[in-house]
Amino acid sequence: MRYSGFKVIKEALTGHKGWTPQWRDPEPQSHYDFVIIGGGGHGLATAYYLAKEFGESRIAVLEKGWIGGGNVGRNTTIIRSNYLLDGNEPFYEFSLKLWEGLEQDFNYNAMVSQRGILNLVHTDAQRDAARRRGNAMILNGSDAELLDVEGVRKLYPFLNFDNARFPIKGGLLHRRGGTVRHDAVAWGYARGADMRGVDIIQNCEVTGFKIEDGTCLGVETTRGYIGAGKVGVSVAGSSSRVMEKAGMRLPMESHVLQAFVSEGLKPVLPGVITYGAGHFYCSQSDKGGLVFGGDIDGYNSYAQRGNMPVIEDVAEGGISLIPALGRVRLLRAWGGIMDMSMDGSPIIDKTHIDGLYFNGGWCYGGFKATPAAGWCFAHLLKTDTPHDTATAYRFDRFRTGHMIDEKGQGAQPNLH
Amino acid sequence: MIINHPLLGPRDAQEFTYLGDASLISRPDAQDDNAAEKFHDYLYLRDNPAGLHRELWFHESGDRSWLVVTRNTVTHEITDVQLARDVARKEGRSK
User: Fold this and answer.
1) Closest residue of B to A251, CA-based?
2) Minimal C-alpha gap between B16 and chain A (Å)
3) DSSP for residue A388
4) Residue B13 and residue A307: Cβ atoms within 8 Å?
5) pLDDT confidence band for A416 (50 / 70 / 90)
6) Distance from the A310 Cα atom to the nearest Cα atom in chain B, whole angstroms
7) Which domain of life is it from (chain B) (predicted)?
8) Could you tell me which residues come within 8 angstroms of residue A2 by beta carbon, excluding any fewer than 6 positions away?
9) CA angle, corner B67, sides to B61 and B73, nearest 5?
10) Option in B18, B40, B53 nearest A414 (CB)
11) For a tag site, which of A80, A360, A384, B85 has the least CB within 10 Å?
């Protein structure tokens, strides 16, 4: 069923009896050409692009819980293409271009809103770094605009400009960045994939791999054995747990990242702002809640909940940037599990086992990457070669010294 | 989280800095034949278990000792705390 304005009006006049489920609930078949493990944003996007762009149809997505129940529904919904390094920026620019056409592409309202992201600077050195980053972004086809303090004041007059320790000196504005309704991304990809014959199999946990003579032949699941031509793993925070079943140790630690939403307010914050002197960023959802977050808690965790010190730290950062936040009540806080790679950058690569492919290590930046990660992973699964924008995301980069250390903090996941 | 420091008693985890898996104590021998490979594994690869995890915490705002904490990564429950010095000595290290 195609969605359109006409369809909404027609259904409104006929009692909304014509809507059908957005995807099927199929029984797993005994064999697929492609099995994607993980029914999150990345896994569903991978299946969608395998079907739509690469012409495959015998595809299954296996999800241990319900689709979209992991990090795709736990992030702070921001999309952007404001990276610095050559290995990263072309990829994220590709992703942002896909976001821009996504809703028309999969015929689903994902509420893509390019409301602009402003990274604040507080020192001369930060302004230099922002200028350099802005130039790198423009060279890669993205957009960047360096604002002086009056430019920032015009956009956000209520910020704490004259903070004695961290006065606001300006900011780097990325106008094409913004936010997306994150659940709708999972649902849109699921519906689009399902329409093209992909089997989305929920409540189906992978318990092991069948590997013979260095070749992956299929997966053992809680709903029986499923044979596969190729298996793609795209499970974010559970990467180490799943790949351990294939005998692999990953360059990753799983950490918890918390996010927060306030009570609903009238429109106060038109775009996304990030604090340059503390780890704090904030936007306002279409429901009115202020959505914000900060640092990871900094220790290995699979708990999907964090601890108080980071909540306090985020609140301090928020109030020092936006003093008015002190009058706002916090409504909800939650945590998601991040597969923190050793250099803070992802992996989309083949493994040493034939027929087993991996997409992960997205740290806390996986959501904005969803369309391109799906596209590039599908490209890799179909052609056995990396997509042009994802050639740097290799397993062996730690061995060969080609790390993509965007934050310059080395192999210290708790610092990224 | 409360870390029960072997010398100082229960202390808030906020006083500590986290480093990671306690296997970082066991540094490979740089003279080994395949030392480069071993250092790659030592520096970059992790078991990253869901469950009991032995890990290094540094009492930065306290007595500046290193601790080996055994903590459940699913529940955050801490079941054992030792001085990293004692753990390293038990493994035959001089300090």
Assistant:
1) B45
2) 11
3) G
4) yes
5) confident
6) 9
7) Bacteria
8) A107
9) 100
10) B18
11) A384
Instruction: Number of A to B CB contacts under 8 A, please give it.
Output: 66
- Find, among A308, A284, A227, the residue nearest to A35 by Cα: A227
Residues linked to residue B78 through DSSP beta bridges, in sequence order: B71
The CATH superfamily of A25-81+83-108+182-251+343-415 is FAD/NAD(P)-binding domain (3.50.50.60)
User: How many other CB atoms sit within 10 Å of the CB of residue B79?
Assistant: 10
Cβ–Cβ < 8 Å for A166, A277: yes
CA gap A378, A236 in Å, rounded: 16
Q: Tell whether the model's pLDDT for residue B94 goes beyond 80.
A: no
Domain ranges of chain B: 2-24+35-90
Model ipTM over 0.85: yes
Contact status of A342 with chain B (Cβ, < 8 Å): yes
Helix (H/G/I), strand (E/B), else coil: A210: strand
Q: Give the list of residues 6+ apart from residue A91 with CB closer than 8 angstroms, or none.
A: A369, A372, A376, A389, A390, A393
Q: What tokens were used for A248?
A: 């692999």
The DSSP string of B50-92 is SSEEEEEEE-TTTT--EEEEEEETTT--EEEEEEHHHHHHHTT
Cα–Cα distance for residue pair A83/A77, rounded to 1 Å = 17
Q: Which tokens go with B66?
A: 């290193």
The full 3-state SS of A236-301, as one line of letters, equals: HHHHHHHHHCCCCCECEEEEEEEEEEEEECCCCCCCEEECCCCCCEEEECCCCEEEEEEEEEEEEC
pLDDT at B92: 84
What is the chain A residue with the closest CA to B69? A299
pLDDT at A408 over 90: no
The full set of domain ranges for chain A reads: 25-81+83-108+182-251+343-415, 117-177+253-341
d(C-alpha A37, C-alpha A17), whole Å:
34
Class at the top of the CATH hierarchy for domain B2-24+35-90: alpha beta
Count of C-beta atoms within a 10 Å radius of residue A261: 20
Strand-pairing partners, residue A300, are A255
Burial of residue A172, with CB atoms counted within 10 A of its CB: 0-12 exposed, 13-18 middle, 19 or more buried: buried
- How much is the pLDDT for B95? 64
A319 Rama sector, left if φ>0, alpha if ψ -120 to 50, beta otherwise: alpha
Give me the torsion for CA of A311, A314, A320, A322, rounded to 10°: -100
- Of A42, A331, A393, A4, the closest CA to residue A185 belongs to A42
Nearest neighbour of B18 by CB, restricted to A298, A342, A398: A298
Which helix (H) or strand (E) segment is B3 a member of?
A: strand B2-5
**In this complex, is the C-beta atom of A341 within 8 Å of any C-beta atom belonging to chain B?**
no
